[in-house]
């Protein structure tokens, strides 16, 4: 059983879906957890759930595309919860359209949140870990879509493939500081992000039929994985791509 007692964890986009589940999982393992997201009401609800596990929790209003906001969020987090132990770069958006209809604005919005946001938050974490001389763990949330693409997913898929490059580079570059970086690749999961797809019967039938476990995932399936990857005892676990997709990507 992973024991994260005394560890401070940050989950960007931790007030919804997969991020919320990972935040809860780390709290159950004993970590104090900061949620960085824009919707303060939703974050307050998540904090209430997390504190129910007897740990400290903090809701930080933060747009991860805003460089100053990310720096301020980190400062507030370590001031209130203590030195950083783990950052999960999970915040993300999607916006799908055929490439012939995709606008530059829509493309930029997806890349700004998914790539710039992950760059800014992991850079801030790396700076902290180096200054603390503490080691630490970074988890970058990509997607199985990074490996196979998908109709209408040009911007999303490009951003998620970019995150593989970011995560791999951090694993190589930060190992000398005892900072590990692993990449999580979720598959189709029932969250607010995928609500439109969930309402599309033909899409659901096709993706479910292609999934060996014959269903989509639910957020709770991500409880343990971030807690596991955050465990400071796992000193040899870095640069991994952890796929959680019911076997979709190997079918
Ligand atoms: P949700 O829509 O449920 O959650 C997205 C989270 O990101 C919310 O907490 C949202 O909070 C936050 N967020 C979005 N933009 C910003 C921003 N600019 N600054 C700070 N926070 C932001 O989605 P999921 O839980 O499904 O997705 C979580 C991650 O998992 C994403 O990176 C997604 O790409 C990835 N993923 C999801 C899959 C799925 O099938 N669901 C499959 C593969 C990967 P707020 O709006 O309050 O800011």
UniProtKB/TrEMBL annotation:
This is NAD(P)-dependent dehydrogenase, short-chain alcohol dehydrogenase family. SUPFAM superfamilies: NAD(P)-binding Rossmann-fold domains (SSF51735). InterPro entries: KR_dom, NAD(P)-bd_dom_sf, Sc_DH/Rdtase_CS, SDR_fam. Belongs to the short-chain dehydrogenases/reductases (SDR) family. Transmembrane segments: none annotated. It holds the Pfam family adh_short_C2. It comes from the Bacteria. Signal peptide: none annotated. Residues 7-191 form the Ketoreductase domain. The keyword Oxidoreductase applies.
